[in-house]
Specification:
671 residues, alpha+beta, Helix Hairpins, OB fold (Dihydrolipoamide Acetyltransferase, E2P), 5 domains, 7-stranded antiparallel sheet, 5-stranded mixed sheet, 25 helices, binds adenosine monophosphate, binds zinc ion, DNA replication, ligase, BRCT_dom_sf
Length: 671
């Protein structure tokens, strides 16, 4: 396509999309399906990316676009979700205490709580049942994320018996434990996916995902700390916390009742160091006036309550020497720099290393080898360098020069346009890449070959038994040599052989993930496998074919196309096919059980009581029915659960499409 042709196409698409937006939002009479709309939007985005000069700030990809693809409904909060006044020093707290005394006298108590570093959420319950979960949003209105919230185990869907009001709201913080964060982030790094800077970002990114199944895979937790009802049965905040606990709500045990500000200060001092022992991040302490009546008397400013304030801890920081910069090479060839530090005590642990993320970070910090640097421990377990003490830089020091060659194999590093990381392109000859790829392939989430461990792979590689994934299926040729290895007895061999044999039954999506294609994590592999069904179809898919798949963006599409152009990769796939691995999805999962829904089409929307959406879809397909992508006159039934989007409902009603419940659907199949 020439530039002029591209320009014309961009203009046509932009004009069409604007018209469709108008039809959809203003006239409520869309003339194309949602899917076709998204197709056009993606085509426009791809062109704008290819020709940045054609990007108009008013393009539908830039503005309403976000709103359109966004499926969350906006909900107005019954009580605004305010922020808290905050302070970093004791004097401010004493002043706060004085202001309160002036307003209500000295007869009051404080409740002190930890300030959890996550995202705030408001939950609504009706007759003891969770009906809605909404993010803070702009404080007045938030995103309705009920389906995602329902995947959090700590949040009860049904309350235990208790004297709760028929309707109430409860608010708190959703967060991710540090260990889970480290594990999931490492997985993302290994898969070449974008990582999150801290557990809070990970948690808030997760709650806003469109795919609840993906949310369910990322362990989130929650603590609740505000109770709201039109007729509040409690006299104090403390009493409300104690009681909601008995209804089944998670309330943090590290909460205290203080009779004056001095006691509050002691609590703050204790947690200044104790906080590092917690499994989750806190960034301070919150104090709240206990009595609801006194809270009411004190009232609010425009932004925050006058009866509460937060005290934020300063990040733990220390000064030490940057001795050198080292590099790690991952299985995809991505190079990560690591700072080697002179050991220093920081927040109770000795710190020797700090993350440097990438070359940009080193340049931003303007690091010299031998510099005295400030290290901080924030949310992350691994500390980071936040700056240089320039007063201590001596004239003999030289700037850190980023490695130009791979520290493991010597190959010149490359950097792709628009990416921060450098890569070692020698995937056929770079030891950590060779070993890493095979380790990834046998891993729990891929082929799950127990009987083979990371160390064994390393050992086999060194001895020349393994170089490619496909060599695993040739290991039997070396059995006699294997028998002579130390700590590798008959039993280990039997286990290994059995594990390798079993891997041939692993479904296509696992094999695809196991290949270790950059940016193709578990979820992406599953989506691709289900969509294309065979490796051949995937291999021959064009860029446009690829980006049509849900959640497949430009980066993943490019990476896939590149992967399939490498002859060695194709050779590997051929060998693995010969070995008997699964390179197509088995249709039996969806084997037809009846023809009861033959010729009928369905859309499923909302949350259901008995089955997940996926299960319902499967049931429909197993009984001959079809699932459609969007509501149109062709649709036969809309299966509606709770919290279905009002736009969908309205559209279905307009078109006179029968709306059925989960039970009715099951009835159609069983009846
Ligand atoms: P800030 O974002 O600094 O204005 O602080 C206010 C936010 O702190 C609230 O929106 C909550 O998300 C969060 N927070 C964390 N822990 C608590 C707690 N125990 N009580 C009240 N708010 C909390
Ligand atoms: Zn290398």
């Amino acid at each position: 396509m020439t530039f002029t042709e591209a320009k014309e196409r961009v203009e046509t698409l932009a004009a069409e999309l604007k018209q469709h937006n108008y039809n959809y939002y203003v006239l409520a009479q869309p003339t194309i399906s949602d899917q076709d709309f998204d197709y056009k939007l993606k085509e426009l985005a791809a062109l704008e990316k290819q020709y940045p000069g054609l990007l108009d700030p008013n393009s539908p990809t830039q503005k309403v676009g976000g709103e359109i693809t966004k499926e969350f409904q906006t909900v107005k909060h019954q009580w605004p979700m305010l922020s808290l006044g905050n302070t970093y020093n004791e004097q401010d707290l004493l002043d706060f205490d004085q202001r309160i005394q002036k307003a209500i006298g000295s007869n009051f108590e404080y409740v002190v709580e930890l300030k959890f570093d996550g995202l705030s959420i408001s939950l609504s319950y009706e007759d003891g049942k969770l009906v809605r979960g909404v993010t803070r949003g702009d404080g007045t209105k938030g995103d309705e994320v009920t389906n995602n919230i329902k995947t959090i185990h700590a949040i009860p869907h049904h309350l235990k018996p208790g004297n709760y009001p028929a309707e109430f709201e409860i608010r708190g913080e959703v967060f991710m434990h540090k260990k889970a964060f480290e594990r999931l982030n490492q997985e993302r790094l290994d898969n070449g996916e974008v990582t999150y800077a801290n557990p809070r970002n990970f948690a808030s990114g997760t709650v806003k995902l469109q795919d609840s199944a993906e949310v369910a895979k990322r362990p989130l937790d929650c603590f609740l700390y505000f109770f709201y009802a039109h007729k509040n049965q409690f006299k104090t905040h403390w009493e409300s916390l104690q009681t909601v606990k008995t209804w089944g709500f998670p309330v943090c045990e590290h909460t205290a009742l203080c009779s004056n500000i001095q006691e509050v200060l002691i609590f703050i001092k204790t947690w200044e160091t104790e906080r590092f022992k917690l499994s989750y991040d806190i960034d301070g302490i919150v104090l709240k006036v206990n009595s609801f009546e006194q809270q009411e008397e004190l009232g609010f400013t425009a932004k925050s309550p006058r009866w509460a304030i937060s005290y934020k801890y300063k990040a733990a920081s220390a000064e030490t020497i940057l001795e050198s910069v080292g590099y790690q090479v991952g299985r995809t060839g991505a190079v990560t720099p690591v700072a080697h530090l002179k050991p220093v005590l920081l927040a109770g642990t000795t710190v020797k290393r700090a993350t440097l993320h990438n070359a940009n970070e080193i340049a931003r910090l303007d690091l010299y080898e031998g510099d005295t640097v400030f290290v901080e421990k924030g949310g992350e377990i691994i500390p980071k360098i936040t700056g240089v003490n320039l007063d201590k830089r001596t004239p003999d020091l030289k700037p850190v020069e980023y490695a130009s060659n791979c520290p493991r194999c010597g190959t010149e590093l490359v950097r792709k346009e628009g990416e921060a990381a450098y890569y070692c392109p020698n995937d056929e000859g770079c030891p950590p890449q060779i070993v890493g790829k095979i380790q990834h392939f046998i891993g729990r989430k891929a082929m799950n070959i127990d009987g083979l461990g990371d160390e064994t792979i390393e050992n086999f590689y060194k001895r020349g038994f393994l170089h490619h994934i496909s060599d695993l299926y040739e290991l039997h040729q070396h059995i006699d040599e294997l028998r002579t290895l130390e700590r590798f007895g008959e039993k280990s061999i039997t286990n290994m052989v059995r594990g390798i044999e079993r891997s041939k039954e692993m479904p296509f999506e696992k094999v695809l993930f196991g290949l270790g294609i950059r940016f193709v994590g578990e979820t992406v592999a599953r989506k691709l496998a289900r969509y294309f069904k065979t490796i051949e179809a995937l291999q021959h898919a064009s860029f446009t074919d690829l980006i049509l798949v849900d959640e497949i963006g430009d980066r993943i599409a490019e990476s896939l196309i590149e992967y399939f152009t490498v002859p060695q990769h194709l050779e590997q796939i051929e060998k693995l096919k010969k070995a008997g691995l699964q390179f197509a999805i088995k249709e039996e999962v969806n084997e037809l059980q009846s023809e009861k829904l033959a010729g009928k089409s369905f859309i499923i929307s909302g949350v259901f009581e008995k089955f997940s959406r996926e299960e319902l879809k499967q049931k429909i397909e197993q009984n001959g029915g079809k699932i459609l992508g969007s509501i149109s006159a062709k649709l036969d039934y809309l299966v509606a659960g709770e919290n279905m989007g009002p736009a969908k409902l309205e559209k279905a009603q307009k078109l006179n499409i029968p709306i059925i419940s989960e039970q009715e659907l099951v009835g159609m199949i069983e009846g």
